[in-house]
Amino acid sequence: MNKKLATIALSGALLCTMGAPALAAGGLLSAPPAAESTGAERVQTLPSSQLYCGEIKAILTGTDGTVTGLHMQSEQSGEYVMKISEETVWIDSSKRTPGGPSGLAVGERLYVFHSSVSTRSLPPQSAAFAVVRNLPEGAGGAMYHQVEAVKEQDDRLQISTDNGGLFLYAGQETTLSTYTGNPLENLNGLETGSYIMAWYDVVALSYPGQAYAQHIMVLDQDKASEPLTRSALASLLHAAQGKPVVNYAMNYSDVDQSAPYAEAVRWASSEGILSGYGDGRVGPGDAVSREQMTVMLWRWAGSPMLMDYPGLTGYSDVSEISQFAQPALAWAHQKGLLPADGRLGPQDIVTLGEAETMITALRDEKTPVGP
């Protein structure tokens, strides 16, 4: 193995030149596994977020003037519609501060970190997790990351992200802030599964890649507004079921047996609520779309079937519903867990709060199993 480490400057301009939408957030040096079919769920082994670099072609707004979407265009990546929600964070990259949509203009250049799940429409649509404005001409633009592991190493902190493909290091020279403005003296309380924006401009061409963070902003929004992950949904269902203990051989390569969600994943797998990707992984940190969440809730409820249920035809985006999810969504619609009509957003990434609300509504129908 060649142990020599080379480095390159990874500026925002270089990222866009390399065709950013195909890259996991921060994952320039890792190669994610190929997508695979896993039966009914058809879950793909995709990164939890992707980076799109481009210009605004059109700004989509609601009746009250609120920005609801950005129609983006890029020579490298084509056109995309990024759907904006209350959970989307806005970042001013040059100032290293929270931003907002005020002053958005057609032609403005942006980074958009968005869901790996997109619609089959033209142009495709995807949920925006973070919109980065005021991009610098040189290196060091803000990058969106999910924290996968944190450990102390000498006099600095090592943050693992991008499915283990990138190590970010924070030391005494790294400045810190939070999205909400809450004071932050250090990163000792940084939790696995949390999200950060990181500014860095050089990555070692090793595997995992390594970079020293100049600045880290902790995205400390209300947990209810955080994107729902597969492990978080398994944990919510496990708790609602009374945290049963099961004897089930769980051999997922990306689940540490000591992880706080390990027993929940074990139980959900044993019940057929959660399935792996077919490559040995289960993707505990992967974001969950509305239809994927509904399928897991439906399985938890016993997979009830409705015959010839017409309720879903009232949705304006019914064509975006995957075939595997139709029975589950029909069930959820019939039970009043979903909007009666209008836009459903089956491919939208859902929040922890949305899952908690639906589980609460279903809990009375379940008989918890004692631990």
**Largest beta-sheet details:** 6 strands, mixed
As a percent range, the share of strand residues is 15-25%
Helix and strand composition category: alpha+beta
Proportion in helices? 10-25%
Radius of gyration: 21 Å
Domain tally = 2
The strand count comes to 17
Round the mean pLDDT to the nearest integer and report it: 82
Helix count, per DSSP? 6
Note the overall shape: globular
Give unreliable regions as ranges: 1-14, 17-46, 367-371
Strand line-up in the sheet with most strands: 1-15-16-12-11-10
End-to-end C-alpha gap? 48 Å
Encode the helix/strand succession as letters.
EHEEEEEEEEEEEEEEEEHHHHH
Report on this structure.
- The protein contains 6 helices and 17 strands.
- The model is unreliable at 1-14, 17-46 and 367-371 (pLDDT under 50).
- The longest helix has 12 residues, at 352-363.
- The chain starts with 6 loop residues before the first strand and ends in an 8-residue tail after the last helix.
- The protein folds into 2 domains: 1-221, no CATH class; 225-363, no CATH class.
- The chain has a 6-stranded mixed β-sheet, with no helix packed on it. Strands 2-3-4-8-7 form a 5-stranded mixed barrel.
- Strand 10 (149-153) and strand 11 (156-161) form a beta hairpin.
- Helix 4 (290-300) crosses helix 5.
- The protein has 371 residues and is of the alpha+beta class.
- The protein has helices at residues 12-17, 230-240, 262-270, 290-300, 326-334, 352-363; strands at residues 7-9, 50-61, 67-73, 80-83, 89-92, 97-98, 109-118, 125-133, 142-146, 149-153, 156-161, 166-170, 175-178, 195-199, 202-204, 209-212, 215-218.
